[in-house]
From TrEMBL:
Residues 1-29 form the signal peptide. Belongs to the 'GDSL' lipolytic enzyme family. The keyword Transferase does not apply. It comes from Linum trigynum. InterPro entries: GDSL, GDSL_lipolytic_enzyme, SGNH_hydro_sf, SGNH_plant_lipase-like. SUPFAM superfamilies: SGNH hydrolase (SSF52266). Keywords: Signal. This is GDSL esterase/lipase. GO terms for molecular function: hydrolase activity, acting on ester bonds.
Amino acid sequence: MHLPRTAAAATTALIIIILTAADIQISTASPNQQLPNFTAVIIFGDSTVDTGNNNYLPDAVFRADHPPYGENFPTGQPTGRFSDGKLLPDFFASILGIKQLVPPFLHPNLSDSDIRTGVSFASAGTGYDDLTATIAQAISMDEQVELFEKYVVRLRSIMGDDAAKETVQGALVAVSAGANDFVYNYYDLMTRRLEFDLSGYQDFLLSKVQTLVKRIYNMGGRTIVVGGLPPIGCLPIQMTVELQNPLERRCVETQNLGSQSYNAKLKKLLAKLQSSLAGSRVAYSNVYDPLLEMITHPTKYGFVETKQGCCGSGLVEMAALCNAESPSCGKEMASNYVFWDSVHPTSTAYQILATNLSQQLASALSSASPPSS
Ligand SMILES: *[C@@H]1O[C@H](CO)[C@@H](O)[C@H](O)[C@H]1NC(C)=O
Ligand SMILES: *[C@@H]1O[C@H](CO)[C@@H](O)[C@H](O)[C@H]1NC(C)=O
Ligand SMILES: *[C@@H]1O[C@H](CO)[C@@H](O)[C@H](O)[C@H]1NC(C)=O
């Protein structure tokens, strides 16, 4: 199989939280907003949801298959996940009662049961803009859809056509991307600024989101959740790139405003797509507010440090956000940090985020009109 490599850049992600805080959030969840029984989880996107596909791309710029990544993973080993432990797809699959870990589709030894309950096609460094995937030598979104096609072929061979169709229709499909597009092509490398103003680039990316959602729908996906942008200006790497005085680091406000205006447009687009795609549920996932909440009120969630990652606040070298030269703050200390590296949340933060996002989803699905069939 030839994997197309595409695009670009760093990563994205966000969020934080502490177990105790997560427990509190769970206990306050509204009991009448329950999630349906999904058959599987199917994931598209960037490093926020790449559970290890880049391990199998020899030229990928961004990899997390080395220490200190994975220090708090159940095995204590790096897996390719860009954090100290589990990522959003893992927490989601677990909240939904499907499984504990979502494997990367490129893993060579996927069992039939792995396939039946869902996989991730995501690739660290990618984005909606093909230029982003090219810069990062990551799997572009078009290529992720091609992998989804291969996945469906295997699913059919395991279950038969009808059951495979039901599995895809009953799956939760989640998409998380976009931050790399802005970080690399707009804010830091500025490649796309020659062609687009901010609003124009947002619209360019949103046209890609629309195409992706329609392709997923045409392949049978019916519940599709698309994540918005995080507060990009609060990623430690963005504060570093702005050459801020280390003692006075603060979120880059204009970049946060850019995320907000993109998110407002995305939310509208997804509502429009839901009404035009019969029987679909297309939900917006607000990662901005819960992440910013953790950054703004860290102690509420047990966090101490919000402005640098547990293993660094810059780009160590092209291939690594953290490596042996940037040892972590210590695996027990990671839960004091919102960010694990200069871009990605700690697993603790992801867990808090996952709880919030699953509640958002339950509420979005309970208010949406049921699929017409
Ligand atoms: C989901 O499955 C469980 C166990 O099979 C069942 O008890 C429950 O009623 C189902 N919920 C929905 C919303 O279908
Ligand atoms: C896949 O299975 C083979 C044979 O059991 C084993 O040698 C290999 O290490 C496995 N690969 C992974 C990534 O687990
Ligand atoms: C998610 O987090 C945001 C920001 O803290 C909060 O306003 C919102 O109520 C939370 N949503 C849910 C469903 O917990």
